[in-house]
Amino acid sequence: MKPPPSVRLAISLAVALAALSTASAHAIGRLADIQVIDRDSGETLAVYRHQGEHWVAGRPGARYAVSVRNATGGRVLGVVSVDGVNVISGETAAWQQTGYVLSPWQQHAITGWRKSDTEVAAFHFTASSASYAERTGRPAHVGVIGVAVFREKPLPPPPPAVTPWPSPREQGAAEQRSSSAPASATDTLAETQAGAGEAPRERPGSLAARRMGPAAPMPAPRLGTGHGARENAPITHTTFERRSDRPDEVIRLRYDSRENLIAMGIIPTQAMPPRPNPFPGAVHPGYAPDPS
């Protein structure tokens, strides 16, 4: 007997909701949106949530970029690390180090290890043993991308304007002028324009660099990030004063090959095991025969 349509619909919805809880949106973060982009295919990698961690599946050999978008109305500093290494300075990553400054709502794709103001060495997914971190003697944190986001310290308010108090004689003369000849519309408009003409100070450069256990066996080698070919990626420099010594947000994103994520149960397999049929044969009258 087939279940009623309402039951079948409920089962279908439950399956769909289970899939949605595993594969989330392509970006994570609150103050900044972080995405990983396969530069060879143009694909933005799906983010999978598993036991409180966020994961993406990298394709061995593919170049990739870490895309950071400022999701606030003020400037932010993002200190970016890959495999526990600062992507600008090459130091073992720490919050106090150099990072990228983004203007309000600005997005920037970080495509490699910075080599100068004009070049980077491209990020690419590779076996952990060939990663930049392991080749420089720091294999402990291979397989993780981090962004520490800092808000900017607000500028101090301008000092209040000091207006000298008029003498009684000056005050009486001003009152007499105002009673005999009111201010014209042209005078008022000129004062308004003078006040509006004081533009706020512009900040230099919107994007800039500033100083600042054993794994379980996997079907494929664990992925890391290699030190690839040099590419053109110019930047400028700016100043940025952090609002606090501690980040306002720390975003953590882990990665490995799709094969390994399936083996760890992070990506569910699409293939369902065959369901046995309780009545697979034709109807033959008689009794159960002896096995051969």
Helical percentage: 10-25%
Return residue spans where pLDDT drops below 50 for at least 5 consecutive residues. Answer: 1-24, 181-215
User: Could you tell me the number of beta strands?
Assistant: 14
Structural class: alpha+beta
Number of discrete helical segments: 5
Largest sheet: 8 strands, mixed
β-strand amount:
25-35%
Q: How many angstroms does the end-to-end distance come to?
A: 35 Å
Keywords: Signal
Biased composition (Polar residues): 176-191
Biased composition (Pro residues): 155-167
Signal peptide: 1-27
Characterise the protein shown here.
The chain has 292 residues and is an alpha+beta fold. It has a domain at 30-155 and 204-263. The chain is built from 5 helices and 14 strands. It has helices at 5-22, 132-135, 168-180, 185-196, 258-263, and strands at residues 32-38, 48-50, 53-58, 64-70, 76-82, 85-86, 99-102, 107-110, 112-114, 119-127, 144-151, 208-210, 223-232, 249-257. The strands form 3 sheets. Strands 2, 3, 5, 6, 7, 11, 12 and 14 form an 8-stranded mixed beta sheet that branches. A hairpin with a 4-residue loop joins strand 9 and strand 10 (119-127). The longest helix is centred in the N-terminal third of the chain and has 18 residues, at 5-22. Residues 1-24 and 181-215 have low confidence and may be disordered.
